[in-house]
Amino acid sequence: MRLTHKFTQLTAGLAMAACTSFAAYAADVTITIASWAPPSHGINAMLWPQLIAEMEAATDGRVTGEVKYGLAPPPALLDVVADGAADMTWIFHGYTPGRFVSTKIIELPGYEGSAEAASVAYWRAYEKFFAAANEHKGVKLVGLMTHGVGVLHNSTKISSLDQISGLKLRIGGGVAGDVGKALGASGINVPAPKVYETLSSHAADGVMMPMEGKASFKLYEVAKHTYRVPGGFYRGSFAVIMNEDKWAEISAADQAALDKVFGEHLSMMGGKVWDAIDVAGMKAITDNADNTLTEASAEDVAKWQEIAAPIIASNLAAANAAGFDADAARAFIMDQMKNY
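Predicted structure:
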């Protein structure tokens, strides 16, 4: 069965489940979910319908959700939810430089494994190492997730690591920014929904994103050449957050039920979606004859490891200085992913 057929079946099934539950129940609380990226993006087409259906099932329909687009640009959504203009959203930590420190630990290059494994390990590391710092103060943290390994999508073919120096690359922030700088690229910081426009206008030569961007943001049209290293250049760190006042509107019994949907379970759901859309991104390469995928040579892998080492060390040092046991957290994440 082709991937596109599987994706269509899954999204149709989730939509049907959500519609069925809407019809069956009259909700007491409706959570407004502010979202971004195209409606066809996996988070919007897959994660939100599943989450809404599970919230309704857990509360016998007393709590539901509705997705709204265009409430604010992605970097502003943390404040939008904190202020109550929306009740829930997903944020990319790299869009808020200087606020989050522990989140960079999951962004470091070199973790081997799926986005699902990384997202579950991330939540477990949060509970064990990061929760006490309360870096998401002002909102309720209900899930953490990472996308798949970051790769380079470029308008011209890159066949060696040295060719990245001098390129103008859209880089989302966080550890990805450190990576771009270390590779000698000029960073252009625009939100993901602006990537296609940035590349099509030749304001940038390429973009660092996971493989999913090839399909989700139609990079197969404007960045036809992909280059990747084992373990990726980085991973992206995301949180699903909720307004605290909205949470307080929900009964204690329903809060207890939703806590079983949120946390590690929601993180796992999110990771699964990122894995699925990475596969779709890979398919966009194979479906378009003018797209290429170049794997780093053994020489470039060794060179990349030398470049990555100080990036890892400096971010761990910053997290340690902020009071986190960063080295232990990184080792814990690696172990959790290995044994997931």
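Summary: Residues 199 and 222 are 6 Å apart (CA to CA).
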